[in-house]
Amino acid sequence: MAVQVRIPTMFRRYTDGEATLQVEPGTIADVIDQIERRHPGIRQQLLTEQGELHRFVNIYVNDEDARYLDRLDTKVTDGDTVALLPSVAGGGPS
Amino acid sequence: MQTRLVLPRRVVDDMIEHCRAGRPNEACGLLAAADGRVVQAFPMRNAAESPVRYALDPREQLAVYNTLEERGWELGGVFHSHTRTAAYPSPTDVRLAGEDVPYVIVSLASEPPELRAFRICKQSWLDDTGEIRELEVTIA
Question: Does residue A79 sit within a domain?
Answer without folding.
Answer: yes
